[in-house]
Amino acid sequence: MKKREKLAIIHQYYPNAITTIDSINKVIDFVEEVLDLEPSQVMMADSICSDDVNSIQYPIRASEFLGPFKMGGLDGFPFTGLTGMKAVSSHIPSKGAVFVYYGPHIGVAKNGKIGEIHRNGITDNSDCCGAATGALNSLSNNLIKPNEITEIDYQMNTIEQILLKEKEQIINATIPIKEATEVIYEAIDKRINELIEMTEFNCKYIILMGTIHINSDKDMGSFSSVKRFDLIDLTTNERKDLAATYFSV
């Protein structure tokens, strides 16, 4: 299947999506041509779901960066918290940068069905993201209790609480799983920016890339619907929104 045919399937739901390979290529070009750095001067930190499909489908070229430091748990929420972000900051080359790639993920199967994918070795399609789908099912069946977060299932309970705050918005949406993913994105984006504000960095730049990370069938690969691409210049404390410049379609 040609790339344009794959993108046509994904664009039914995410019109600005590009392949994750292309998104990483764009970031590396930006690092080299605009920031005048080598990828080996950049620490990558990702806050994406711990689902194995993300390890399978993530571009090999991302290994040109240092790391990655893994910040994300279920559906990409940065469960490593402030301690994790401070650890990231201490691993960055002093004259380099940190690249934070974050966001929830969702499946779009080759048959066009959203919320599921065909995984390696599995006969039938399966949920993607399974945690978001499970939380959505609990939300729809009124099984989530306000402020109920247990030690045994802390991450799932946190995802449930995020959805519970926007219950009507999600339940009444045309595609509830897509809306739930958007709600989780906003929670992740808010938390990442809070962690950045609370952390001291001794490097030159912070690159923030917030996306809806889209998985598909094993022969389709993954895609990125970029919602934020910010550059923070720590020498001037200037922050630029560059998403329209580098990721508009």
Automatic annotation (TrEMBL):
Pfam families: LCIB_C_CA (PF18599)
Domain Limiting CO2-inducible protein B/C beta carbonyic anhydrase, residue spans: 19-233
Name the record gives this protein: Limiting CO2-inducible protein B/C beta carbonyic anhydrase domain-containing protein
Organism: Pedobacter planticolens
Organism ancestry: Bacteria, Pseudomonadati, Bacteroidota, Sphingobacteriia, Sphingobacteriales
